[in-house]
Fold each of these.
Amino acid sequence: MLQTSEVGKIRREVLVEISRLVFAGKLKEEIHTILDTVVTEDGPRYRCCVHKERAVLRDRINMAISQPIGSRLEEAAENAVNGNFTAMPIINVLPEACDRCPIDKFLVTEACRNCIAHNCIASCPKNAIMVVQNRAYIDKSKCVECGLCKRSCQYGAIIEISRPCERACELGAITAGNDRRAVVDYDKCVSCGSCVVACPFGAICDFSQVGELTLMLKQQTKPVYAMLAPAYAGQFGVKVKPEQLAAALRQLGFAEVVEVAYGADVVTNAEAKEFVEAILNGQDYLTTSCCPAFVKLAKQMPEVGKNVSTTVSPMVAAGNIIKEQNADALVAFIGPCVAKKAEASEQRDIIDFVITFEELASIFAGAGINVAEMTDDEMVGGGSCDGVSFAKAGGVAEAVRNVLSANYPGMVLKAQRCDGLSNCKSTLADLARGGLEANFLEGMACPGGCIGGPGRMIDPRVAAKMVEQRSAQAAIKSAAKNKAALEAAQKYLVQHDE
């Protein structure tokens, strides 16, 4: 998640150690040693004592091997090795790690001049403000946190403070519970992962399948296919070639390595066809369906949710193709996205595992694999220039435009795009009010598109350039020219669950 902070380091250390023990065949026997190798008696110390540190670490380990928080490590490891995993929400709060941030939302600063106007006092509907020692004072027992005092102060002397996790969530899905610990409202949560990155205590984490996947790669009971999201370019080093990454994945134990950009070509052709049919049938507009967080947000707004494309995402399209070719195959999607984990949980017959680039980098480290030193190997199912461009904001709309131009020359595409949940939310609201002149809306929950996802390994600006380079290298320049994808597109106008 592009974190060089101590939170990111600890998270990766846990995943590396889990992977190392799995590949060494010692998970059951030595899982408890992680408590001593990651948190030592000598420090560094981030919490009150070593016992607190290890209590938090124990929860992290359980999450990494898909076991309930609070489980004894030896029992958890045995369950994992025996294939007994626990389904859990994608976004989870580690109770031992949450600092229960004791924040008063509105605070009077030293900038207060005890002015004659006393606009703050006059604006307060609960009479919660008075002057104490020549400065305004807010009585927290009366304050309802309406914010009128802050807006009325002409000096800007009253500031608003919010918890990092609450501030990061554009949808208000995280609040403080009765015990002041963070609580996730899963009806509002779209699993974007912003809160995971934002929490400075590492108290919020996304569900991980690193333990499950590495165990399957170790046991080799079924062939496991790796599917690389279009944003993979440059994630493991700007000089690392795709063929080197393919070789590293095969050395881990993957049977085949597939580019999801091919699935993006399938989706582009299917979505262009769906757009034409929708507009000709009198529908005002169509929105994209490749970003699961955006789709869930749109579905929370019934007036626009009915206009979300019914075409499956590139991940599901590519997974479908693999399963049709090999019914025994297990499919692992690898990308920068946390929300894909939620989408996969609803498509378990197609997608078996989802891990982020950060999680894959940890697995490589645990297995002792240096991607930059690998000899080139083959990668399957390359997509077109359009398919690779799905990784960047604006790429989907441009891909659909190219297909319409080639196959439906009479259709006029009035495309708009939004990236970042805040922008998506406001743009969808504008669309619902009829205030947006568009018949096609591309929505991406992460700023900049998938390249800005929370599970990325490099700066989005660098990633954008790497995706552009990879796109330029594509042998097929447009999804409309990808004949295999055109044929497959006829199968994948599959409706999302309402």
Amino acid sequence: MKILIADDHPLFRQALMGTLKAQFDNMCVLEAESIPQLEEILATNKSIDLVLLDLDIPGAQGFNNLVSIRRNYPELGIIIVSGFEDKQTIHKAMHHGAAGFIPKSTSVPEMISAINDVLDGKLWTPDGEFNVNQKEEGSAADKIASLTPKQHKILLMFADGLLNKQIAYDLGLSESTVKSHASTIFLKLGVRNRTQAVILLNQLKSIGQQF
């Protein structure tokens, strides 16, 4: 597992890094202290699973960087870790694509629980308002039905645990084309990553829906 901590306070980064390495086996933790450094690391490390992003990191422009990262890396989970913990800021972060929001005042056990939830494809906020697998906007069946045949095939391959490279080979597509299809699938289903997309698919199967 590879996590990127983007925060300009060295002591906080070191404390968080120590906590993560103590709680997770085989954890690789990267660090960024500014937006340019964050962007450079993301561009050169394609296997990052999660970003822990401070809203006040130098170079940040409000929520613009969050929106930009979500657009450029749709399969990447982002948790905002911030000194701000007012409800308005939390809700804005979630609506702009964050998978979680952890105030810096959060206890270590709760922080680890939040990170685990996001890694499991869930959302997490301290008030619990967003702690669901997806937004209830339109039925799950309608969302799945909106996919093209090729997109639906790719979703099923996600459910089989195939990597983008394997899917590209099997379907005779380029890996970048598969990534583009994945981004569109996530938007249509109202989810943020392939884990949430598969959860939605499995929920339909569990109630007897067939696609």
Amino acid sequence: MSDRVVVRIAQLAPALGDVPTNLERMLSAARDAAANGVDLLVFPELALTGYALRDHVPEVAIPLDSPEMNALREASRGVSIAFGFVEETPDHRFFNSAAYLEHGEIVHVHRKVHLPTYGLFEEGRYFASGESVRAFETRFGRFAMLVCEDVWHLPIPYLAALDGAIALLVLSAGPTRGLDHEGHAKSSSAWERLLLTYASSLTMYVVYANRVGFDDGVEFWGGSEIVDPAGTVALKGRYHDPDQPTAPIDLDLVRRERIQTPLLRDERLPLVIAELARIQEKRRETLPGLSAEDRQRTESSAEERE
């Protein structure tokens, strides 16, 4: 296992609903990456399908043993690959998922936990929510993957770091929303502040792969980047245009930063767990509209504590 990893972010514009076209572009990108010494190739959220799918979700969904997945698995023999797709499970649920492929195998699948259903977003109408956050072993060390909105909920990256991840791959389809006083998209500025905060406070690499192009009149701003554990932007993609920013990263920097700033070492998990249990119990008592599922989870947690 080498500390030096050459990472490329495939900042592309997926063709909406056109899986064959997107697959061929991704396979071509994988061949080019392998030929040019890239170790890890990261695609955006829903790279295989495009984002604004709505009722077409079932038409573009694939199971994990699909021909499309098998083709990408084969491509991962030359370069490790992370990409977003619509996953169909055997019980015919549909997830906004991210897969990590390596040495011809599916190493890990993350199902998006938080589905935005507000403003221009309507994912909750079409997808099921993921129910876990796990770090996983790669040939480079222990990584984790999240999908877009997951990162806006503070506990999710925190859990990934506590589970041992030294790098967080964030696959995104971030739309352009609003302009700041300098003419930049407010959404891009917000994302950049957020990623820097996670990288420095969790002392881990954050690799952000965001798409470009348009879906149904919505523009996506790109600006993919890598932020290192010291909070420095190590790599930056262009705004609004396709790009394939590529650079080596030094994973030993995680070790050095965690020695110098041992924030994760000093986390007080028993306190966090106890206070969350207290807050959950308080909500259960004060919110009569709590769902049966949440009530059952609360009661199960209480039983385990006893």
Amino acid sequence: MLENFIIAAEAVLPVFLLILLGMGARRLQILNDLELKHVNNAVFQVMFPFMMFYNIYTADFSGALDLKYFVFCVGMLFLVYALGTITALVVEKENRNRGALIQAIYRGNLVLMGIPVMENLMGEEALGLTTIMLAVIVPLYNILAVVTLEVFRGGKMQPFHMLKKILTNPLILGAAAGIGAVLFRVNVPGVFLKPMGQIASAATPAALLIMGASFYFQSVHENMRNIVLGVAGKLIVSPGLALAAGYVLGFRGISLALLIVIFGAPCAVSSYTMAQQMDSNAELAAGCLLFSSLFSCVTICGWIFLCRQAGAF
């Protein structure tokens, strides 16, 4: 039990350290609001697209992927998304809050959590399936996020304008370029791939630093109800549904363990950046990210313990 807790804690502790560093930079007045806005634009417009391209292009697709498992994970993701949308429409009246809440419920931090948790939990043999599912689920996360935040941006619904915004979103462009490069077997020279990898590696730390510097604790009280709903939906309801359904359908071992990461990881780091860039409630997104990262150490450990008690892996 303690070993599982340590695994989960080691995966999320870097998130907190970088957030705290950003808070310290703000308190020391190293960064001001205008600088944060410019850096956030750079992360969203430049670093995230390169990260999406690099992660897809370098993913190992050689491992065996069960079609049944693939369909299950994608179907479960859309189910969680639908439940999150219904919840937001019922409990929240402001569109600005709805988009951020929906995103918090379904969108997990797989890029940061997926590989280290699965490698520590199930060994190197789990990395093949993990990287394949990362390459599938993460682009879906981002497509749904762009659609959601555009729909709940407010104002008059303009389908063609919205479609243009979706198709020109930097994350969608980066994912599309990565998928295209893989499908058409494009050989990216190492001289270009190496700096892409460096940018991709810096994207998440930069986003966390910005979030920490932009976070105000007074916003927690203002968004408390939605933060509780977002965190509970992300860490308890979503993985609970996925694990129960997966267990009934006969998934065991690596396949079942991976469901803990896909559906039970804390909120995605990029959810804050996208919420800020697309006129959603960035304070709510930041609160969900902060508290889901904190409590995920306990919930991930708990899901691992329950699955092992059930003899699932």
